[in-house]
Automatic annotation (TrEMBL):
It is an enzyme of class 3 (hydrolase). Homotetramer. One of its GO terms (biological process) is spore germination. Belongs to the peptidase A25 family. It comes from Ammonifex degensii (strain DSM 10501 / KC4). It catalyses: Endopeptidase action with P4 Glu or Asp, P1 preferably Glu > Asp, P1' hydrophobic and P2' Ala. The lineage of its organism: Bacteria, Bacillati, Bacillota, Clostridia, Thermoanaerobacterales. This is Germination protease. One of its GO terms (molecular function) is metalloendopeptidase activity. Residues 1-3 form a propeptide. Pfam families: Peptidase_A25. The keyword Metal-binding does not apply. Its EC number is 3.4.24.78.
């Protein structure tokens, strides 16, 4: 299953050779980003897309890779606006629990905990500070529960226990995703109102974190930090086929490169890793840190009515 809805939609269209019934796609162009909204509306679309019914908003921007404060402020503003759309049914007094999913000891999987590090938390102010210090803020708390391998506890169990105790009106999860294309690493932010299944992108499904399991709305925010090695190999072979097919003398070779043969070779190469070898850039530590700051800024803008993007960036 693909983590990104835009990739799942493209794959479903390629597989069926037609538009997917029950799926609506809208695109918006912004100065530094392209925003694609995919709405999965029917059970048939859910089956074909292999994504739960709901709204998926993807912000694509190569500027996420740049260390440009002005552009990052614009992206924080855009992210805040799109997050606010998913939170529009909540009152201004609603409280939120931000959950940073992932393993802080593994850099490609540390996006969630790093975002929690930068998050503006205010729940303690609502309990201990004077009223004048709460203006324009919502009650926000944050949690980085770790992973099953280091805690021995299912992540969903930890979150559910906290939710039952502090009773937030919404849970917002932050997680690293797996992409189909290397071009999407640290350049795409996906927002979804469907919740999340931690580890699903790398074939390691855990208990779902969604409205059904938590009892409150769950908004999922994710950024791709890894790509399956198999996808890179497949893309390389597809480009090779295109090159071979353009040269008359090499077309005979092209005829013998059947997809089944190529897939068998890829499977043999990845067999020592169980077919699940993941690839990430060598500068992933910097990318995760910068992206975490932008996500935390977007959360601050969306959750705190009195916060603007410039102020949010200062808190980072």
């Amino acid at each position: 299953m693909l983590d990104l809805a835009v990739e799942a939609h493209d794959l479903a269209r390629a597989r069926t050779g037609k538009e997917i019934p029950g799926v609506r796609v809208e695109k918006e162009e912004h100065p530094y980003a392209l925003v694609t909204t995919v709405q999965v509306e029917t059970e048939e679309a859910e089956r074909l897309m292999q994504k739960p019914k709901g709204t998926y908003i993807t912000i694509e921007s190569s500027a996420l890779l740049e260390n440009n404060r002005q552009i990052h402020q614009e992206l924080i503003k855009l992210l805040g606006e799109k997050l606010s759309l998913l939170l529009k049914d909540l009152p201004e007094t609603a409280s939120a629990l931000i959950v940073g999913l992932g393993n802080w000891h593994a850099t490609p999987d540390a996006l969630g905990p790093r975002t929690v590090d930068y998050t503006l938390v205010t729940r303690h102010l609502f309990h201990y500070a004077p009223q004048e210090l709460r203006g324009g803020l919502r009650e926000v708390s944050a949690l980085a529960p770790g992973v099953l391998g280091t805690t021995g506890i299912e992540t969903a169990e930890i979150i559910r226990g906290v939710v039952e105790k502090i009773k937030p009106d919404v849970v917002i999860t932050i997680d690293a995703l797996a992409a189909r294309s290397v071009a999407r690493i640290a350049t795409s932010i996906q927002l979804a109102d469907t919740g999340i299944s931690p580890g699903s992108g790398i074939g390691n499904d855990r208990a779902g974190i969604n409205r059904e399991t938590m009892g409150v709305p769950v908004i999922a925010v994710g950024v791709p930090t890894v790509v399956h090695a198999a996808f890179i190999a497949q893309d390389a072979m597809e480009r090779l086929w295109q090159e071979l097919n353009q040269h008359p003398r090499l077309r005979e070779v092209y005829k013998y490169l059947h997809p089944e043969l190529v897939q068998r070779v890829i499977d043999q190469l990845l067999a020592p890793f169980g077919g699940r070898l993941m690839v990430t850039p060598k500068e992933i530590d910097t990318l995760v840190q910068n992206t975490a700051r932008i996500l935390a800024g977007g959360l601050a803008v969306a959750l705190h009515p009195g916060m603007n993007p410039e102020e949010a960036y200062l808190y980072l």
